[in-house]
Specification:
407 residues, alpha/beta, Rossmann fold, 2 domains, 7-stranded parallel β-sheet, 5-stranded parallel β-sheet, 12 strands, 43% helix, 13% strand, EryCIII-like_C, UDP_glucos_trans, UDP-glycosyltransferase activity, hexosyltransferase activity, GlycoTrans_28_N
Length: 407
């Protein structure tokens, strides 16, 4: 089977699809991964990478991402060109691969690849890191702060998202004609598929079953975990109570101020922190150990709590490690995962970035370090241990395609 896996976005957006593409290759399939080559790393034997040249870090640090964080349709409209350019960057790398593909597995924002696949009658499987189907008790993934809303307001929030969708990639017919030079014969949204949808998170976190696909479990690597660097391993070995603080690819307006705030939190609680903040200046703060690239799965098993942005990948790593979370959501599905972890008893109530003062963070970390929360986190980790998300996803796509071909 010739499989094209397309994913664009931050490192956290792309990494699960890299693992999935590798498992397709392990299963004997011919695989092309359409993504940002700079985020793939050393690659995987038998895996071809078609490079998407756009820079996700630039988008996340710019006005378009700020518009999404604020949830303003007007600001999204003003930055429509930036979104459209970014989404369109996956089109050209997808063309050659799709001409001989049996199936496309596309991330939420790989909309250009979906358009091209539909025009070539290539079956499409959409893959999502959050539950598009859920009743959203707690949050509308792409609309910040809606986790405070009652049920009727959440319904309105979902309708509002549908109105915003065209700005998150220009998926309307005009964009299709103008950018892809294709006839607007297929309405395409963030969830369009022809075979089914894959949901790459653990069913232990979200009880609602999708009607259009399968919840697989997280997509992680099948090999041994990368070890910690000696510097970090030695620091953790020396004892003391350590936490982790990092917000993935989320742009920080003042990284130095963030570090000082975290240091103050640690001083107040008598803990130390491994901090991973891109762009942070070199500062000598007594309670912090700054790092650049440590393996989350291994690191999170060694700390007492994980302070993070609530990205799907980081959320999964914290849960698998049995570490309580403190979620500081910035935008999108991060609010959803922060709410879910709180409802599951493995995290205090999320602290949105705008409200993350020294006092608020200290109270949240202190709550996460409570014995009942730590016990609940360990119990949840035991329930998700052994789940093979990539294996489930590969077998499901094989089954869907075989069923479609037998009709």
């Amino acid at each position: 089977m010739k499989v094209v896996v397309a994913a664009i976005g931050s490192r956290g957006d792309v990494l699960p699809f890299t693992h999935l593409a590798g498992r397709f290759a392990d299963a004997g399939h011919e695989v092309t991964l359409v993504t940002h080559a700079t985020l793939v790393g050393a690659g995987h034997p038998g895996l071809r990478v078609a490079d998407v040249s756009s820079d996700p870090e630039e988008l996340l640090a710019g006005p378009a991402a700020r518009a999404v964080r604020r949830g303003s349709p007007r600001q999204l409209s003003r930055n429509r060109q930036l979104f459209a350019d970014f989404i369109d960057s996956a089109r050209q790398p997808s063309l050659e691969a799709l001409d001989r593909a049996d199936v496309l597995v596309a991330s939420t924002f790989a909309i250009a690849a979906v358009h091209e696949a539909l025009d070539r009658s290539v079956p499409v499987v959409r893959a999502h890191m959050w539950p598009e189907h859920a009743d959203l008790r707690g949050v509308m993934p792409l609309l910040p702060y809606s986790w405070w809303l009652p049920a009727p307001a959440r319904v309105l929030a979902r309708r509002a998202l549908r109105r915003v969708e065209p700005y998150l990639g220009g998926v309307d017919g005009g964009w299709r004609r103008g950018r892809l030079h294709l006839v607007a014969r297929h309405p395409v949204s963030l969830t369009t598929s022809t075979l089914g949808s894959l949901y790459a998170y653990s069913p232990e976190l979200v009880a609602d079953e999708p009607t259009d696909g399968t919840v697989t479990g997280w997509w992680t690597g099948s090999g041994p975990d990368r070890p910690l660097t000696p510097r970090v391993a030695q620091a953790l070995d020396h004892g003391g109570d350590w936490i982790y603080v990092g917000f993935g690819s989320m742009h920080q307006r003042d990284p130095g101020a963030l570090l000082r705030r975290v240091d103050a939190v640690c001083a107040r609680l008598g803990v130390r922190a491994v901090v991973q903040v891109p762009g942070a200046p070199a500062v000598d703060l007594p309670h912090l150990l700054a790092v650049t690239d440590e393996p989350h799965d291994e690191l999170f098993r060694r700390v007492h709590a994980v302070v993070h942005h609530g990205g799907a990948g980081t959320t999964g790593a914290a849960v698998r490690a049995g570490a309580p979370s403190v979620v500081v959501p910035h935008f999108a599905d991060q609010f959803y995962w922060g709410s879910r972890l709180h409802l599951l008893g493995v995290a205090p109530r999320p602290v949105p970035r705008a409200l993350a003062t020294t006092g608020a963070l200290a109270r949240a970390v202190e709550a996460a370090l409570d014995a009942p929360v730590r016990r609940q986190a360990r119990e949840l980790a035991a329930r998700v241990r052994g789940q093979d998300g990539c294996g489930v996803a590969v077998r499901q796509v094989e089954e869907w395609l075989a069923h479609a071909e037998s009709r």
